[in-house]
Write a structure and sequence with these properties.
PyrR_bifunctional; Uracil phosphoribosyltransferase; uracil phosphoribosyltransferase activity; about 210 residues; transferase; glycosyltransferase; two-stranded antiparallel ribbon; Rossmann fold
Amino acid sequence: MIVDISKTSCIANTYIAELRDEIIQKDSMRFRKNLERIGAYFGHEISKHLAYKNIETTTPLGIANSKVLVQQPVIATILRAGLPMHQGLLSVFDKAESAFITAYRKVVKGGDFIIQMEHISAPELEGKTVILADPMLATGLSMVLCAKELINEYKIEKLHIVSAIASTEGVKHVRANLPKAHLWLGAIDDEMTTKAYIVPGLGDAGDLAFGAKK
């Protein structure tokens, strides 16, 4: 399943537009907040596809029938750019555990790059639903690498991938390598630069959120 909210009329499209706007981007707090709000929006949408059970809730005036999650998902994030979206997802799934993955582009000889993954910090994931967030899905290499590590190492039950902006190439790569994953995307852009930046995209999400890195 692929959900592209740019094809629909919803408030999240306003957040995406502000993320892209080069003037609004100068306010890093606003940039982080928009990523957080997109994370929360997708959290609500994903919640409609999870399992629930009926419970009775005692109110001051009687008993109400309610529905609650059978099991909380685990919110996983690729550092550092994914942190604001992680916070947005946690605002919806406020009892969820968290997992963090360190992955980055490493430039090699000839100017090409490989994806280097160094560390995973995760709770028990056996049989659980995992929501993996990263604002940009460019080539899809880092997403596939991190997701396969979680799937192979921890035998997770279901995987939801959340990104604000994706490229057509990145979506194809993820679908080819993670055919069972559900993709929740703010928008899909057709082009990428030779350095694998999405066009029109929005630039470097990590730098815009937290400052330029060396």
